[in-house]
Write a structure and sequence with these properties.
The protein is an alpha+beta fold and about 220 residues long. The chain contains 4 helices and 12 strands. It is about 20% helix and about 35% strand.
Length: about 220
C-alpha cells in the first residue's frame, strides 16, 4: 500500500485483506497459524482435549507518524506468561462473538472504551501450545480515547509503529529450550528494548502475511 494513501484508503485496503466479522465454528475452512509453524516436532499433538476459544484486539491507532499498535506488558503477578508483551485479549465467554470478547477484554485490561473502536475484520486464527485458539480482531481506534492499566493483569501499555511490525526484516526467528528438553522456534520482534515474541509475534507475522504476503492491489 502506498504510504501517501489517505487514511480512509488505508483502512479500506487493510479491511479488504481480512475475514468478515462472523462466527468461526468451522475452523478448518480458514487459514490457521500456530506456535508449531516453525518447529514441526513441537506440534498440536502436545495439546490434549478441545482448544479453548479466545480473542485478542489488534488496535490500530492513527498517529501523525502513521499507524501504531496498542500492546501491553503482562503483570508480574500473573501465573502464566508473566511480564511478556501481549495484545489485549483473553478467553471467550459463553455466547460471545470473537469481537465481543476482544472489545470486552480490551476494556477490562486497559480501559479502552468499545465505542472508540471501528472493527475492520478478523485475521488468521492462531493456536497456542497451551491449548488456546485465538481469533485476532483488527480494529481502528479513534481519537479521544484514554487508557488505564488494570494492575491485576497489565504492568504497562504502549504503542509500537505498525510499519515496524509489518516489516519482515524485523521478524526474527529465535529458539528456546522447553522444560521438557524440547526446543521451540518462534518469531520475535524487538523495538525500543521491548521483545515481542511467541504467540503475539506469531499473530502479527500472520497479519503481515495476509496484508503483504501476496500482491493484492
Amino acid at each position: 500500500m502506498n504510504d501517501a494513501a489517505s487514511s480512509g484508503d488505508l483502512r479500506a485496503w487493510i479491511s479488504r485483506h481480512l475475514d468478515p466479522l462472523e462466527e468461526r465454528e468451522a475452523i478448518k475452512s480458514h487459514a490457521q497459524t500456530s506456535d508449531f509453524d516453525l518447529g514441526p516436532a513441537y506440534g498440536p499433538n502436545e495439546v490434549d482435549g478441545p482448544l479453548t476459544p479466545a480473542s485478542v484486539l489488534i488496535g490500530l491507532v492513527e498517529r501523525a507518524a502513521g499507524l501504531s499498535v496498542i500492546l501491553t506488558r503482562r503483570a508480574d503477578t500473573l501465573r502464566r506468561h508473566t511480564g511478556q508483551i501481549a495484545l489485549p485479549g483473553g478467553r471467550r465467554d459463553p455466547g460471545e462473538t470473537p469481537w465481543q470478547t476482544a472489545l470486552r477484554e480490551a476494556h477490562e485490561e486497559i480501559g479502552l472504551e468499545p465505542h472508540f473502536v471501528s472493527l475492520a475484520g478478523l485475521s488468521s486464527p492462531y493456536q497456542t501450545g497451551t491449548g488456546y485458539l485465538i481469533t485476532p480482531v483488527v480494529g481502528f481506534v479513534g481519537e479521544g480515547f484514554t487508557l488505564k492499566a488494570n494492575p491485576d493483569e497489565v504492568a504497562d501499555i504502549f504503542e509500537t509503529p505498525f510499519g515496524f511490525l509489518m516489516d519482515p526484516k524485523n521478524h526474527e526467528q529465535q529458539e528456546r529450550e522447553l522444560p521438557s528438553g524440547e526446543k521451540r522456534r518462534f518469531y520475535a520482534m524487538t523495538h525500543a528494548d521491548r521483545v515481542i515474541w511467541g504467540a503475539t509475534a506469531g499473530i502479527l507475522h500472520a497479519l503481515y502475511e495476509r496484508l503483504y504476503g501476496a500482491a493484492v492491489a
